[in-house]
Backbone:
């Protein structure tokens, strides 16, 4: 393929630009890349990748001769026929779309792909078109990294956009259904699937054997069907809903057309309907933190005034038979939220329109007493046994995680299931996970540490504050002695009465297993 031969790959672009210019490009700052490409164009034999970066990533006009040399099989004429470029009055061409390299690196192997989408505001001046098709962004990358990968028969990519999640799903799913409310988005997805057919193991003439593309809102296109795995980066952005709203004025890539966070609430309520028993769904979302909602706690004030905190609000959306694990990664004040999304669509370039839109955001949030907006991920599972112990976990994790985090999330769910199957850990043998370290802090001259911490070096990178008895338990957990034996020995050593001591310590041990500090010993 011409693109690969020109080294228009993730590694090829990074190698050509160098660390500084590549990092700037990742921040949508184009100048260093443009300067590097112009410098290369002045040499006697420019690197082919230079012309492609200049055209598609930097949004600069390109000469037909330079593209013919960089892509000898396709040439400028082929690019025009494919709709990837368009002519300009100077006689050259400019990018009609954003076409950029993408790399999938999973348990099988790595693969170079290319993804077409609409040009961003940093590449083409002006407000984005309302049917804009988003390319590779931080949200889509986050979803790809947090998805628990396992071989499945049928997977659903809900709100596929340009098809990024479908690419990943095809690596471990026999069949993928991709849906979107935008026919234009599905057209980009189809193009991208055909462009990367060899890598994705697709027969271009029999695409439907492995992929189904369907237009429609939310779960309408798959009503009555069930899937082993659903992933979704839905249009979750909370947007003011004026009475005179024209649906054609919505930015379809981010605005689902519902008030507040109802798009996320609707999916949480209904995704179980399209999951097989034991099937899982993973999605990104925003949710409103209203009035005096607090970070997750057991605040008496919150209970008394009747205003639920954010975990309780999300839990109220869940069907009884749905397991859930929600991780809030960030919160923004209403003003910050308005600024971010107005800037995202380049709506901040007209002062009068910006003022009106900004005010509309603030008024909309104030009407529902919204104090902050949370962003994060939601893991859902249709429970195999309806009356089984439910997984209901809601937490705030704002520090950096190891990526991809999907394998660690999957392992944590397996540990939850293991704990649910063991009502008592007395006969279980545990050992400390390989990535766990202990950290002790003491006042100068103190005989004993005042603070003992366990830290994870991988996965969710949690830190756990340790008690004396829990520290002793972990120190003895090498897989040889059972949980009951260690707890019994500690009870004698610390002169603590059983069974109260045993019950309390086992509860703390269960939490360490759930969080991955301790794991069942290998047989």
Residues:
């Amino acid at each position: 393929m011409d693109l690969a031969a020109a080294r228009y790959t993730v590694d090829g672009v990074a190698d050509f630009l160098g660390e500084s210019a590549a990092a700037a490009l990742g921040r949508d700052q184009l100048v260093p890349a443009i300067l590097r490409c112009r410098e290369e164009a002045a040499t006697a034999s420019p690197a082919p990748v230079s012309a492609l970066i200049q055209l598609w990533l930097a949004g600069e006009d390109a000469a037909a001769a330079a593209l013919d040399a960089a892509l000898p099989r396709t040439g400028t004429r082929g690019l025009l026929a494919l709709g990837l470029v368009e002519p300009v009055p100077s006689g050259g061409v400019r990018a009609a779309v954003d076409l950029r390299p993408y790399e999938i690196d999973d348990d099988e192997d790595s693969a170079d792909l290319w993804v077409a989408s609409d040009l961003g505001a940093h590449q083409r001046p002006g407000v984005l078109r309302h049917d804009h098709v988003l390319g590779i962004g931080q949200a889509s990358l986050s979803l790809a990294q947090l998805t628990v990968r396992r071989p499945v028969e049928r997977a659903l990519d809900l709100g596929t956009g340009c098809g990024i999640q479908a690419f990943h799903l095809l690596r471990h799913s026999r069949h993928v259904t991709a849906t979107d409310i935008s026919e234009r988005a599905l057209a980009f997805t189809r193009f991208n699937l055909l462009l990367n057919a060899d890598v994705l193991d697709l027969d271009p003439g029999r695409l439907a054997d492995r992929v189904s593309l369907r237009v429609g809102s939310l779960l309408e296109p798959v009503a009555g069907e069930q899937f082993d795995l659903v992933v979704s980066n839905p249009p979750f952005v909370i947007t003011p809903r004026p009475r005179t709203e024209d649906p054609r004025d919505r930015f379809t890539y981010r605005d689902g057309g519902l008030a507040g966070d109802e798009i996320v609430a609707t999916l949480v309520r209904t995704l179980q309907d399209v999951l097989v028993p034991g099937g899982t769904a993973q999605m990104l979302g925003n949710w409103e933190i209203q009035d005096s909602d607090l970070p997750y706690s057991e605040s008496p004030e919150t209970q008394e005034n009747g205003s639920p905190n954010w975990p309780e609000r999300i839990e109220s959306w869940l069907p009884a038979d749905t397991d859930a694990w929600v991780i809030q990664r960030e919160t923004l004040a209403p003003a910050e939220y308005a600024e971010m999304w107005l800037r995202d669509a380049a709506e901040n370039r007209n002062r009068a329109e910006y003022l009106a839109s900004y005010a509309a955001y603030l008024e909309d949030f104030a009407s529902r007493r919204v104090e902050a907006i949370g962003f994060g991920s939601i893991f859902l599972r249709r429970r195999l046994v309806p009356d089984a112990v439910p997984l209901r976990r809601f937490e705030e994790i704002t520090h950096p995680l190891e990526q991809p985090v999907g394998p660690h999330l999957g392992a944590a769910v397996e540990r939850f299931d293991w704990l649910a199957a063991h009502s008592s850990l007395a006969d279980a043998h545990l050992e400390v996970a390989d990535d766990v370290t202990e950290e002790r802090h003491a006042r100068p001259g103190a005989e004993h540490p005042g603070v003992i911490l366990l830290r994870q070096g991988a996965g969710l990178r949690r830190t756990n504050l340790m008690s004396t008895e829990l520290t002793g338990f972990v120190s003895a957990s090498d897989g040889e002695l059972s949980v009951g034996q260690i707890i019994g020995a500690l009870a004698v050593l610390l002169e603590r009465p059983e069974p109260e001591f045993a019950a309390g310590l086992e509860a703390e041990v269960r939490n360490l297993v759930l969080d991955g500090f301790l794991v069942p010993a290998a047989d």
Summary: The two ends are 49 Å apart (CA to CA).
